[in-house]
Amino acid sequence: MKRSVATAFAPASVGNVAIGFDILGFSVDALGDRVTVKRSSRPGVTITAITGVVENLPLEAAGNTAGRALLALQEAAAPDTGFEMTIHKGIPLGSGLGGSAASAVGAVVAANALLDRPLTLIDLLKFAMQGEAVASGSMHVDNIAPSLFGGLVLTVGIDQPRVKQIPVPRAVRAVIVHPHMVLGTREARAMLNKSVNMSDFVWQTANLAGFISGCYTDDLDLIRASFEDVIIEPQRHKLIPGFREVREAAMAAGALGCSISGAGPTMFAWSTVDAAEAVRSAMVDSFAARGTQTDHWVTGMEGRGARLVAD
Ligand code: HSE
Hints:
Blueprint: E1 5-15, E2 24-40, E3 45-52, H1 65-77, E4 82-89, H2 99-112, H3 121-136, H4 144-149, E5 152-156, E6 162-166, E7 172-179, H5 185-190, H6 198-216, H7 220-226, H8 233-236, H9 243-252, E8 257-260, E9 267-272, H10 276-289, E10 294-299, E11 307-309
Parallel strand pairs: 3-4
Antiparallel strand pairs: 1-2, 1-11, 2-4, 2-5, 5-6, 7-9, 7-10, 8-9
């Protein structure tokens, strides 16, 4: 019998991971969005409610990230089926933790469970990308792909995306620290220079290659040496008051590297499991010293991607 309702949980994510602007990200299972999709006799896509940590989002489907993603799926795979959707936000708005991506991913994963012939994850990725474009004005995949597939994920290509889940050394943990402030992805993208100088290009390329090689070969020293964004972070860090101090505190506490999560203001670090709690405390205390409250998590990166949960 055809299923008429499904609910999906889609995890938060850290985009860019310092050196992979717009192409690399990892999932953060500690928080995420839940999206329920029902078949409806009403044509099109209707968003009936948005609850949770963010409520004032557009209810009009075409202007909502989850709505836009679901419209794209409907147009391609279920033109005669109406959908009704509710979104429960677990990821704060403008946090740099992939909230718009998670809602879009949750919508397409839930809707996929209602289709007679389910689509592939790559199809779902493409539909979710259209939703992400509503929020940020561009088709980047570094939050969508990890939220959908789980773990540390590299995506090559936009029209024909190729997705690779990259192994993270067992001893490594991610520390995520979300300061209570809001940054818009659109603005954080608009401020970036449109060209890159040659020396920075060479360093960034070396760092991305070194980082990924280090992940595949369990080489923590190479990961540490490569963990530096020489292009985006120097332009954006001023948007996060205290960035330099927090980063220095994380490094002094033994982090392998520390940078901005996506477009910020959340910051993240990688560290070995034995140093993770010290890195977390150092970052949290550094924000607290300037009166900034935070939420924070320490997590592994073998995380699962979006999945169906009880309605
Ligand atoms: N790669 C994107 C950026 C992530 O840094 O602008 C934001 O969602």
